[in-house]
Every structure is written in C-alpha cells, then in structure tokens.
Known about the structure:
The protein is of the alpha/beta class.
Amino acid sequence: MNLPIDRKIKSNIIKFSRVKEGDPMQTVQTLKFIRKEVPPYASGTMGTTTGSVFRISSDWSRADYWGMIKSRIGAFRMNYAVSPGLYAVGEPTKDSDIFVSANYKLSFDILRRELKGFNAWVLVLDTKSINVWCAAGKGTFSTDELISRMSATKLGTVVGHRSIIVPQLGAVGVNAAEVQKRTGFRVFFGPVRAKDIPSYIQAGYTKTKEMSTIRFTMRDRIILTPMEINPAMKKFPWFAVGVLFLFGLQPSGILFKKAWSGGMPFLALGLTAVLAGAFLTPVLLPFVPSRSFAVKGWIIGLLAMSTAMPLFGPSIRGEILLLVASWLFFPAMSSYIALQFTGSTTFTGMSGVKKELKIGIPLYLSLAGISLALLVIYKIKAWSML
C-alpha cells in the first residue's frame, strides 16, 4: 500500500539527514531514528561544504543544569559526553572563529554558553569524557587527536582561514608547531576561563594577564570536593562492616552490643578521616605545608584526629593497642584520600603524582596492616587468650 509523504515530515528529513526519497514507509521509519539521534542541545542543522552539522544552542536547559550537578557529585561524569565533531554556534561562515573543546559535556556546555551572540565553529575532540585540563595531562586532549579531528571534519574545507583557538588549559597536550606543520593551521591559545572569551575576541584576540592566570580559589576547590567525598563514602560501608564484625566477634559468636559499643568510636574516627582528606585538605590546600598531597592530608588528618579523639575516643584512650592503631591508621586514611585530589589541581605534575603514589601506596598498606594486627592482638587479649 502506498502512503502519501507528509510535507512536514519530508522537510524534516531533508533538514536533518538528507535522506533520499524512496519507499514512504521506510522514509518515516528513518525519520524516527534520526529524531532520536538529534542531541537536545541542538537547535537544528546547517549545511557546510562537506555536509550538515548540528547548530547548537547557547542557552542551557533544565537538563543541562541537572547534568552539571550530577557530574559534580559522582561518577556520572564519566558518561557525560557529547559526540566528537564539528558544531555551529549562530550562523558561522568560512571566516568565523574555530574554538576547540573536550567532549566532556560540561566543558562543551560552558563553551557554548559563553559564545552566545557570536557566530563560531566548535570542534569537539574525543577526550573520553574528560575535561580539557585533565585530558591534556592524560594525553587524550592531544596534538594527534586535534589533527585527526580536523582531518575527519575536513576543517580546511569548511573555513577559509588557517587559525584555530585552543583552551590555554589544553596547552600541555597540544604542540602548536606540530599542528601548524601538519595541517597549516596556526594554533592560538585562548583564555584560561571560557567566560573571558567575549572579552578576548573584543580585544582583538589578545589576552590580558588576568585572562592568562590560572586561579584555583577556595570556591573552585569546594566545588570539586563532592567528587572526592562521594567515592570515599561509597567505600565506607565496607569499612564499617569490617569494624563492626571485628568488635562484635566473640568466642560465643557475634554480639551486636559489643559490635556497636566497640566499633562506634572507630566509625566516627573513620568519618573524621574522610572529612579531613576529602574536604578539609582541598579547602585548606594552599595553607598546609608541603607540596606533597600525601603529607598535606596526613597533617590535616593528625589535626582532625586531635580534635575528634576527645569526643569519640574515651574508650580507645584507655587501651594502648587501640590508641596506637587509631593514630597510625586514620591519619594515613586521610592522607590517602587527599592524594586522590592531585588530578584536580595545578600544584602537582604527572611525575609528582607518580612519585607520591610510588612512595605512598606501600606505606599506606604497611600502616593498615600494622593497625589490623594491633586490633587482632587486642581482641585476642580481650578473650583472655594471651
């Protein structure tokens, strides 16, 4: 049975995919598939000399704001990505600027929001859902990826000029001379923050000292702390189960009262260590001595323990084995959690991180082992077996 093609449907097909006319039923089915693939941040498409690209909106939707919140507090960010490729903002022409972004959606969203009112191209690299700064350090925001994406999108055909603007925070991963040698495009490193892009353009693509300065304020650090607290708290139940089991274990079986009375101080100190390593250390980062994150976390852990022990540890202070185990384990726990924050800062390079891990991991394991041994000895003595 032949069905007439709805004119509106046919128009949408041409607009989004240039689907060839054929069997009307097949056309409608194809349209449904295409509509599903159109990203919510796209306001339509526009044609280029090499095909059509999505025109993206500079306005954020409620979903964009909710996505930002989720990406700040959990592992959702590892799947918060846009498809790599070329996008259009406004009505760009062959003479319009090209801005490069990571495919981490929050990086992409911030850039498109700051380009409101401009006509520009946005080239999105495949950074495996990692932001520009971290991706540059990990090698996914790189010279090869930039050149590969320029080639895949036939950028040299889309625009008539030979310049491209890369975020300054991606400079560590991009060799400008190599890009120009292999593509003919000259790389300009834009401002540190996307919010300065309008001023940067209006100033004739000249950066002020303020635009070039990397600032990592307390507010910036606090914003990142949920990403440290969340994974630590996901592991905390395993720690709690181990503590309650150890203190509740008796020759006659597991006693809930013993588990709670003996384990409660350790659970409180454990939460204190999480707070010290995942929140207090990042917030106080510039004020704590040492460049080592492990040492910073250990210092804050000791201070937090000094504050928490009088509140939660009366029963611990009367037992030398428990006391020593606590002072060995919990500052080390704080140190380990603080060490995870290195990838979010400007203070430690990749070599520094590797060095800290090489020294820190064996030390953490040793302290954890010694603490566990002391707890086992305490239990054996409590059972009058020693």
